[in-house]
């Protein structure tokens, strides 16, 4: 019977396909930008005194030949820089490069090696502007490549494993550090001297052991394909300027006024406690808001979130709350929101949704 013949043929073809699919490796591109993972020190005991951004991408890949068992890995040197020196120009150019790579049908995932200082910012930016389901994994290290027990090689191995793994598709831009898999939106550098440098107050999404990811959570927030921001719509090499003012006791209004004079479009207030603003500063912030500078209330406290209309009457003042975004993430999200318009209610909606 023709249908039986068809069934047997289908079975034979699928049995033949199994061994091929077992051996077909995904293609992963490592985009290197510098940082400690590419750092070199004077001796193997220099784990904190060294020069970042020294080792070229091919040497990074050659140092971990095992990654070629996980995927067909190639390297691109996008930048060779310490991440604190990344400006909008480098950030936008990196995002464009990652976007171009992911649009290629033969690229299955991308790993970005990055300095840890602003790794969370780059990861969050890619999370917001790259419209792809393919894995985007940002990785760094705390010890330079020349140090005893350098953490870079295993972090890179894990990042490639993650980028090559189909289960990482559609989960948003990921940060792979110290065996932990984090969501770009809420990961932050929590300690600046140990290898467990990255934390999220909502926990890791999963963990990666011996080249295999194990997932425990998923982000419910908009990212990548579901984002309303797209690197392809952003022109030029600068985002609308947003700056941060750090809250403390006994402040002067001068920093806010100076930033406004410099032409910023929004100020993120890294306020004390629940994003508080000292009573004597409120008139200055309201004056700036009236002039068209958006006021975003974030907090200098690393955990928790800022409640709208709690410490301050945000509705009355036309201010925005950053919710659980730390000041540096709030700065990027506000800058992207400002590419779409200047309405405080719209900016607030964006802060709730991402
Ligand atoms: N400050 C340098 C950077 O962020 C080195 C720190 C690091 O990568 O851990 O690129």
Overview of the structural elements:
The protein has helices at residues 2-23, 57-62, 67-70, 88-103, 119-129, 152-164, 254-261, 282-290, 314-317, 327-338, 344-353, and strands at 27-34, 72-81, 109-113, 136-139, 174-177, 180-183, 187-189, 198-200, 206-209, 212-215, 242-246, 266-271, 294-299, 320-321. The mean pLDDT is 95. A hairpin with a 2-residue loop joins strand 5 and strand 6 (180-183). The protein is α/β, with parallel strands linked by helices and 354 residues long. The strands form three sheets. The protein has an eight-stranded mixed sheet, with helices on both faces. Bound molecules: glutamic acid.
Residue-averaged pLDDT = 95
Bound ligands, named by name, code or SMILES: glutamic acid
Strand content: 15-25%
Q: How much helix, percentage-wise, in residues?
A: 25-40%
Radius of gyration: 23 Å
Number of distinct beta strands: 14
What is the CATH homology-level superfamily of the largest domain?
A: L-asparaginase, N-terminal domain
Q: What is the name of the CATH class of the largest domain?
A: Alpha Beta
| Whole-number tally of structural domains | 2
Low-confidence stretches: none
CATH topology category name of the largest domain: Rossmann fold
Distance between the termini: 56 Å
Largest sheet: spatial strand order:
2-1-3-4-5-6-9-10
What overall form do the CA principal axes indicate?
globular
Structural class: alpha/beta
Largest sheet: 8 strands, mixed
